[in-house]
Amino acid sequence: EDNDRLLRTTNLFQDARVVVLPDARNKQDVDILVLTQDVWSLVPTDAGLNLAGQQFSLTLQQRNFRGWGHTLTTRFFLDNRDTLQRFNFRGDYFIPSIRQNWFLAFNAYFNHFRDVKQYGGRLNRDFIRPTTQYAYGGELSFNRFRNFVFYRNTD
């Protein structure tokens, strides 16, 4: 029952069942049957175009990248009115389990927007089961923000 729940918490399956069947030839052995119903893995999560045709955005999420169970999210944003940077991009790559370990996850991200440049990754272990005693995490990143100072004329 716990294995069913763990499989269903992933983005890979709509439904999952693990059935234990006794072996008819040998009473000490069992067969394990795993039934799954997959989900469509490429999902457009956001798209937009303003009326004047000056701005366009598109976000795509691949929930089973290369069949590995990893999630790749990309966002493209084009702003023709911006003179500093017209094309903006965000990428996010998530590995839900490292080396078949359901408890250890990794997330890498890349944000390249006009006022924000971020590159980094985080490693974490979440509370997945009630019996999990410890959770931890760490993050290493490079962040560059463009700050603006506005002065108000009080005259």
Side by side, the strands of the main sheet go 3-4-5-6-7-8-9
Would you identify the regions where 5 or more consecutive residues have pLDDT less than 50? none
Continuous helix count: 1
Give the C-alpha Rg.
23 Å
Q: How large is the share of residues in beta strands?
A: over 45%
How would you sum up the global shape? elongated
Structural class: mainly beta
- Quote the average pLDDT: 83
The CA-CA distance between the termini, in Å, is: 71 Å
Order of helices and strands: HEEEEEEEEE
- Major sheet: 7 strands, antiparallel
- The number of distinct β-strands equals 9
Q: How much helix is in the residues?
A: under 10%
Structural descriptors:
155 residues; mainly beta; 7-stranded antiparallel β-sheet; two-stranded antiparallel ribbon; 1 helix; 9 strands; 5% helix; elongated
Helices and strands in order, then pairings?
Layout: H1 2-8, E1 13-22, E2 30-38, E3 42-49, E4 55-65, E5 70-79, E6 87-95, E7 104-112, E8 116-125, E9 136-145
Antiparallel strand pairs: 1-2, 3-4, 4-5, 5-6, 6-7, 7-8, 8-9
Task: Report on this structure.
- The strands form 2 sheets. Strands 3-4-5-6-7-8-9 form a 7-stranded antiparallel sheet, with no helix packed on it. A two-stranded antiparallel ribbon has the order 1-2.
- By secondary structure, the chain is mainly beta.
- Strand 6 (87-95) and strand 7 (104-112) form a beta hairpin.
- The termini are far apart.
- It has one helix at residues 2-8; strands spanning 13-22, 30-38, 42-49, 55-65, 70-79, 87-95, 104-112, 116-125, 136-145.
- It contains 1 helix and 9 strands; from the N terminus they run αβββββββββ.
- The model has no long low-confidence stretch (mean pLDDT 83).
- Helix content is 5%, strand content 55%.
- The longest helix is centred in the N-terminal third of the chain and has 7 residues, at 2-8.
